[in-house]
Amino acid sequence: MARKLLLEHINVPGINTFDVYRSKGGYAAVEKALKTLTPEEIVEEVKKSGLRGRGGAGFPTGMKWSFLAKPEGVARYLVCNGDESEPGTFKDRFLMTYIPHLLIEGMIVSSFALGANTSYIYLRGEMMPQIRILEKAIAEAKAKGFLGKNILGTGYDLELYVQPGGGAYICGEETALLESLEGKRGNPRIKPPFPAIAGLYGCPTVVNNVESIAAVVPIINDGGEEYAKIGIGRSTGTKLISAGGNLKRPGVYEIELGLSAEEFVYGDDYCQGIANGKRLKAVVAGGSSVPILPANLFLKTINNEARLMSYESLSDGGFATGTMLGSGGFIAYDEDQCIVRNTWNFARFYHHESCGQCSPCREGTGWMEKVLHRLEYGHGKMSDIDLLVDVSKKIEGNTICPLGDAAAWPVASAIRHFRDEFEWHVTSAYEATTRNYGLAHYADPLNAVVA
Amino acid sequence: MKVTIDGFPIDVEPGTTILNAARMIGGDIVPPAMCYYSKLEGSGGKCRTCLVKVSKGSEKDPRPMPKLVASCRTTVMDGMEVQNITSPEVIEARKGVVEMLLINHPLDCPVCDQAGECHLQDLGYEHGAAKTRYEFDRRTFEKIDIGDKIQLHMTRCILCYRCVFTADQITDHRIHGILNRGDHSEISTYIQKAVDNDFSGNVIDVCPVGALTDKTFRFKNRVWFTKPVEAHRDCDHEKCNGKVTLWYKGEDVIRVTARKDEYGEVEEFICNTCRFDKKKTADWVIEGPRKVSNKSVISANHYDTLKPLPVVKANPQLQQANKEQFERETRL
């Protein structure tokens, strides 16, 4: 069994209460950080650990922290991005529901490292139970002197607030999140300036994912170098993967980065294979925005090497034959699933969630959704497939925020890898409404496909 | 700071945007802008028509920028090299943006009051394909009156947010904004006819399309049949200096607008009294006809200087030939 850093005590009864969490060694990182380390040393530890942002982009957290502007007399803020709304991703919700004190401990250490005296945890509006849980945990920590004025007698003050959003996917984009936190309409800002220079209320701000902040706790406890030993290459540490879809045992797993993809899908410690004795057809490896891959390309890279669950290995092959680790929302599709319908479903989501600020995304997402709807319901034309590719290209890279890219990639990659299934939906339109395309050649050994 | 746009070098102040640097050079290399408005702080970056390629970041860091950037919101760096119309990538992206802007636009130019001075029309002619690939129903909205003299035809709106910034920055308080999100988002006051402000009429001038129109002018005339004349009056309003353009049809002033520059941006915002209530020649001091660019359809009925038609010279050879032919035919 692999090492667990975040979910080590997840099965201890009552771990969501302060006393049990403390008895399992919780809040040791706060004591260590506040009493023995300086903020610069913490940032240095995080840099050494090689921790990369767990929200999707994979930007090194330590580097992000060191970019934070530190002008005199201006408040700095740490904002925790808990607006987890990517279809397929539910790791942060799991973490906050069952072990809320880990996040709060991480917030205290990180806020101390960044010199923030007010920090926010921004949650999606739909996560009302988690808001209650976190608020209870904050009250407990405050009662024990880990929050508020003069924490543990070190003279450091920190107020922690939980703020629910209105329930918009776009508010997971960091600048839209800050707008929403300020009480405005959640439209992404135009960068530059980046939040590290002018973020919340125009002050320097760091926005980090829930899991990134939680991962600071084991880094401080064990030291950055120890953390960096876990994992492979530049993908260090452990990662929460929320596995869903047609798996025998879906759920949230903490994996050491570098675990082989085959082991993750079929291993006994993990998902235990595909449910109901079906075969794997396709995989979305990191939440709905990352390119979808057929089973053969997911398990093996184009060079016939085993694919690993790490930032580098999953993106091996670029957009042509690779994907991304993203936020860790792992979705498996068995042979009975229709890729066209799934792509339409994703496009519908992005159409619904586009903020409507910039034109390519606002108009293009709706257009793609309508074309895909037509294909799925048997009214499509052969030219629609190329039209979709063209529209997705016109959106990609031309928008203010990454939502445009996130909407374009699943469509473009589904057509790239499953073009014959799309064509079958046009040529056998009636049949396509009565049955699914099936597995076809999507799990065949690679050289048969990429000849 | 030195910046090169499509091969044209120019020296600009630090903090200038690429778009403004291009406007200083002028000509065809100026990127089109549907949402950027130089008089409104914070505008721009939304429509994506002004995308340009930065092929060299700066003298210090010569790497090109990975994506196309919105020229209206990107400031220049020393030694930056920008490609606008010389980059096929930019032309392609802009064509895509224009197509996107038009797929939900009703294309009702024949009955639209903005036709002839519409930025989207110009942009469509310049970049758009003649045919659309969009085969679905367009989004539609009911027309509403957002003020007693301003009508909102949301179906035409391209969501540039200019009117929102105008209401924020020019008027005392803003009571209209964007409702909903995505392609069903709309400009709305929530309560109809709620906009009553001395400067609210300026939202009509800043609107790049025919979404916000002047109810005192609606369906009165096509703009290219009217004659623009510059005029001013002594306005009581402390923020308005009364410099306007009067649009004449025959003897009547049928519309009053602020004066606009070559990029369609108003030079000075005017108050509602000047715009809606002063529609007699006697109210104004006439300065003279307004110069209209010969690229504009409005100039079709205007002549800068009267050039008499050239007199046809007598051609003896041709006259002789005609005479001979006439004789031949009568003989037969």
From TrEMBL, chain A:
It catalyses: a quinone + NADH + 5 H(+)(in) = a quinol + NAD(+) + 4 H(+)(out). InterPro entries: NADH-UbQ_OxRdtase_51kDa_CS (IPR001949), NADH-UbQ_OxRdtase_suF (IPR011537), Nuo51_FMN-bd (IPR011538), Nuo51_FMN-bd_sf (IPR037225), Nuop51_4Fe4S-bd (IPR019575), Nuop51_4Fe4S-bd_sf (IPR037207). It holds the Pfam family NADH_4Fe-4S. This is NADH-quinone oxidoreductase subunit F. PROSITE patterns: COMPLEX1_51K_2 (PS00645). Keywords: 4Fe-4S, Flavoprotein, FMN, Iron, Iron-sulfur, Metal-binding, NAD, Quinone, Translocase. The keyword Aminoacyl-tRNA synthetase does not apply. NDH-1 shuttles electrons from NADH, via FMN and iron-sulfur (Fe-S) centers, to quinones in the respiratory chain.
From TrEMBL, chain B:
SUPFAM superfamilies: 2Fe-2S ferredoxin-like, 4Fe-4S ferredoxins. Its cofactor is [2Fe-2S] cluster; [4Fe-4S] cluster. It is found in: Membrane. Pfam families: Fer2_4, Fer4_Nqo3, NADH-G_4Fe-4S_3. GO terms for cellular component: membrane. It comes from the Bacteria. Residues 1-88 form the 2Fe-2S ferredoxin-type domain. Its main location: membrane. The keyword GTP-binding does not apply. GO terms for molecular function: 2 iron, 2 sulfur cluster binding; 4 iron, 4 sulfur cluster binding; metal ion binding; oxidoreductase activity. Residues 89-128 form the 4Fe-4S His(Cys)3-ligated-type domain. PROSITE patterns: 2FE2S_FER_2, 4FE4S_HC3. Keywords: 2Fe-2S, 4Fe-4S, Iron, Iron-sulfur, Membrane, Metal-binding, NAD, Translocase. Belongs to the complex I 75 kDa subunit family. This is NADH dehydrogenase. It comes from Mucilaginibacter pedocola.
